[in-house]
Amino acid sequence: MFRTRRLRANAGIRNMVRETRISKDALIYPMFFEDGENIFEEIESMPGQYRMSIDRCDSVIEELLDAGVSAVMLFGIPKHKDEVGSEAYHDHGIVQEAIRYIKKKYPGIYVIGDVCMCEYTSHGHCGILNGSDVDNDTTIKYLAKIALSQVEAGADMVAPSDMMDGRVEEIRAILDDKGYKNIPIMAYSAKYASAFYGPFRAAADSAPAFGDRKSYQMDVHNSREALKEVEEDILEGADIVMVKPAMSFLDIVTKVKEITNVPVAAYSVSGEYAMVKSAANNGFIDEEKIMCEMAVSAFRAGADIYITYYAKELAKCIDKGIIG
Fold first, then answer.
1. Is 244 a residue of the active site?
2. What is the pLDDT of residues 68-116, one digit of tens each?
3. Of 59, 165, 170, 204, which residue is 20 to 30 A from 229 by alpha carbon distance?
4. Hey, what domains does the chain have and what are their CATH numbers?
5. Considering the entire predicted model, what is its pTM?
6. Which parts form a coiled-coil structure per UniProt (predicted)?
7. What is the rounded CA–CA span in Å between residue 309 and residue 29?
8. Active-site pick, 81, 244, 255, 277
9. Which residues are annotated as a binding site?
10. Residue 200: its pLDDT value, please?
11. DSSP of 132-153, one letter per residue?
12. Is 277 part of the annotated catalytic residue set?
């Protein structure tokens, strides 16, 4: 007991014996690309985050690089939406063109393509409809097309976020067949049907036109189901598995970490960011301290990778020694 007290009291040794470490290399920053020109529109529910056209992304990427963040995940907002989300797999779709631009101008940036259809379908669901239901087996064929189009554009990794059964296997098969055997897949393996996604859906124009996504995303009451989903994705070829959201599902992060030896990602989603921003802007909390504490909790729970809208700010806190 006395030895532990001395370690806590000794400022010079606290960092040395710290159990949880955070690296800038483990941070991923989400970006919203909108089809068009000269667009740089702040997202009302997410102050400090923007929908941007490709020609306006340089300042954001350069700020990330200056802070030491070198990985981004791309989401797209197309001009045209249809029943099958055709802009999601179009060779010149908004995400495909953003990938090409970033990889050409900033080759040091690691680019991850989010593979889903909700931003691209006229009905806002994550797949192809059969009546009012999403047709799982038809959808995974389209998801594989989306993943391939992103990789052909230059994506370093693809991240299927749809939660369809069998999509990892389908994507792995088409990538391998086309010679992209070394492109990793980060699967949204335990993606819960959460109310924390509200600001994202407004930002990406991806709210469903009817119903909800509870038939294919996970019930927030379930934990054993998450482990089953993770195990299935790994068997199908997932290289990294993800838990989403992060803050309310840290128990799932820990359980996933305990049953697998692949890297585990945690996504701190739009609702988490919006709550912190709102409370901080009202003077109720210390934004920097809360932001850091949330990140530490994810890594302490077992996350190896942290996807966050606070990536740049966290990197600066690492430099200042506040966390790390």
1. yes
2. 999 999 999 999 898 888 899 999 999 999 999 999 999 999 999 999 9
3. 204
4. 21-319 (3.20.20.70)
5. 0.93
6. none
7. 6
8. 244
9. 116, 118, 126, 201, 213, 229, 270, 309
10. 78
11. TEE-HHHHHHHHHHHHHHHHHH
12. no
